[in-house]
Amino acid sequence: MSEQTIFHNAKLADGLLADLTVTSGRFSAVAPAGKAPPAGEGAIDPIIIDLDGQLVVPAFVEGHIHLDTSFYGDVWRPHIPCTNGFDVRERVAFQAQNLAAAAPMAERAKNQLELCIGNGSLAMRSHVMVDALVGLKHVETILAVREKYRDLIDIQLVAFPQNGILSSPGTAELLDEALKLGCDLVGGLDPASFDRDVKGHLDVVFALAQKHGAGVDIHLHDGGTLGLFQVEEIAARAKALGMAGHVVVSHAYGLGDIPANVLAKAGAMLAAAGVAIMTNAPGNHAFPPVAALRQAGVTVFSGSDNIRDSWWPYGDGDMLSRANMIGYRSGFYEDHELAAAFDVVTHAGAKALGLEDYGIVVGASADFIAMPAQHVPEAVVAVPKDRTVYRRGRAVASGGTILAR
Ligand SMILES: [Zn+2]
Fold this sequence. Notes:
Layout: E1 4-11, E2 17-23, E3 26-32, E4 47-50, E5 55-58, E6 60-65, H1 88-100, H2 105-119, E7 121-129, H3 137-148, E8 154-160, H4 171-181, E9 185-189, H5 198-212, E10 215-220, H6 224-240, E11 247-251, H7 260-273, E12 275-278, H8 290-295, E13 300-301, H9 319-330, H10 335-345, H11 347-353, E14 368-371, H12 376-382, E15 388-391, E16 394-398, E17 401-402
Parallel strand pairs: 1-4, 6-7, 7-8, 8-9, 9-10, 10-11, 11-12, 12-13
Antiparallel strand pairs: 1-2, 2-3, 5-14, 14-15, 15-16, 16-17
Helix pairs in contact: 2-3, 4-5, 5-6, 6-7, 9-10, 9-12, 10-11, 10-12
Bound molecules: zinc ion.
Zinc ion (ZN) binds at residues 64, 66, 127, 219, 250, 305.
């Protein structure tokens, strides 16, 4: 016999008041309110929950985070400014210094995970640092944490060469090991400005991806034409290797400071190659124009990225407030624009991460959020915190707090 729950009076994104039937953790019916199908022959009495017209949306997708390097829940670590403008290499050195004095990694990762789950993210992609100094220590720790939280959240891990690949001898072999241990994707870092060898860096990344059948997700901070050049190189490789849907450029700041006609060309190239762009609408940086890229057919998704770490102190692990930030920085005012900002943290994220059973549809995993909002545009501007988070049809968090398991 299968366990069944019927959620009455769920307000869906299209305005329909619906009854949602969840059977063994998946949506088995989505029907207009009052029209839920009767339980099947031999079924036990379903659990009935009245959502009372609350807005029901699929769980958020936290598409880019660093579970190993956050100090969330640890002591406050004041931000150390770079000595001569933003410098990735210097920030990495500050990070090493901070991490040496931090609370155990598993504990910090757990703090951050519970923050994200409490806010409604039930799928996540985390980059995890791999380099000659830390070896596979971070990967091993975060793999174990992922296992402990498997029933609450689906986590993809990116083996992330935080100290470059060519400039940190031994890293290519460590990335290979990390993928063998269970990382799902291979990362990269500023092939031009960090390793100063775009071809050499990408050769390693894409060879490892091919060898392991893994995806690619590259941190690219380089701006302007240098950034654009690398975006084009990555898209060309994705296309040549038939990796549509499995390659991401994270940040891609360069797309935010090029002329519109150049951006249009880059957008068309990214869409044709099936390369997605991750942006967290960062501080005072130029960032990829969300509306223009979406219009070109590019999947644009988002993540918290750094939360209380050596890069910046901001971040709240709430993808709804991230949608708000994306909308705010993009000048989104109209309902369809606010809905687009929401799509970035939900369906577009699911597409970028390749989640197959996502959404409020029959057959999908019943991972959803109920919140007091009239509709999606209002949720994006009001960011209601009084949410209930359901994982496979069971409440797992309420008002930001994880419920007893
Ligand atoms: Zn990052």
